[in-house]
Amino acid sequence: MSETLLVIISILLFLMLLLIVFFIITFFIKKRTHHSILKLHPYLGRMRYLLEKIGPEFRQYWFDHDTDGKPFSRYDFQSVMFLAKYRSEILGFGSKRDFEASGYYIANTLFPILTEELSVNLTQEREGKKYVIHKEGLFSRREKLTADTTNLWLYEEDDAIIVGENRKYPWKLHGMFGASATSYGAIGENYILASGFGAKMAGGSWINTGEGGVIPEHLHTGANIVAQIGPGLFGYRDEDGNFSMGKFMEKAKESNIRAFELKFGQGAKIRGGHLEGQKVNEKIASVRNVRKGETINSPNRFSFLKNAADTL
């Protein structure tokens, strides 16, 4: 009987201790916050912020429809991912998309084009790797990375796009896709190396430097490069921020810089590009010809171009 009583007393003391700790924590949480929700509901309020943080992941896997999402739906993303990772081009019969909706321009035909009739160069191959699925269960997927060879999809010689046809060194473009503009500073060296080596492996492809300038890693990949010149003239400016023909000619002499692109506007960034000073290290400052540790604001247009006539 005494042992039973001792156990009951121990449990009660433990519960009382938990209650005391709970009230102490609640007191300090309420006292130290100025947020009304957290002050009135210290625990549920924090649960709300937790749910807000994990909300995008839940919507991505559970609630979003396969064809929802901008700019790419889950269906688009998975199609590209499976093709790259598993080399799988097989799609299930039927579709979840509404092909009769406005915007679709592909329609069934009684006499479709045969594969061998496509105007595409499939003669070149690249060695790579792919994943082979051995077993796919409810909670796991057993897969193995194996060697693989794939054909490059390139334009035929007559269909190749020529950039600077009348220039001394025209660029004949056989690839269909390249890496779009992303500035060094917004992304790091590893991304540039990965996309650059990938573009070179793809054949006929290219990478765009973005307005952050050309760094050694761009050139090291050996990929074709489109060097972008933005309103901030980063990498092409003198000490006063004006356009430097000398800096431009230095880049033009690089053999794998095949073209220059002028970035006339900033897209959705109404007031222009922005890079916090704490991110502007010595390398970024050197490449962009700005001061280390100083916040960079790129204008939303070139200051010396006020209309279409000025661009000519």
Could you characterize what this model shows?
- The protein is an alpha/beta fold and 312 residues long.
- The protein has three domains: 2-63; 74-88 and 118-153, no CATH class; 158-311, no CATH class.
- The chain contains nine helices and nine strands.
- The protein has helices at 2-32, 36-40, 42-63, 74-86, 189-202, 216-220, 245-252, 282-288, 308-311, and strands at residues 125-136, 141-151, 161-163, 171-173, 206-208, 224-229, 257-262, 274-275, 296-297.
- It has a three-stranded parallel sheet. Strands 1-2 form a two-stranded antiparallel sheet.
- The longest helix has 31 residues, at 2-32.
- The protein is extended.
- The mean pLDDT is 86.
Strand portion: 15-25%
Strand order of the largest sheet: 5-6-7
Cα separation of the termini:
100 Å
Residue runs with pLDDT of under 50 for 5 or more positions: none
Average pLDDT taken over every residue: 86
Global structural class: alpha/beta
GO molecular function, one term: glutamate synthase activity
InterPro entries: Aldolase_TIM (IPR013785), Glu_synthdom (IPR002932)
Protein name: FMN-binding glutamate synthase family protein
Keywords: Membrane, Transmembrane, Transmembrane helix
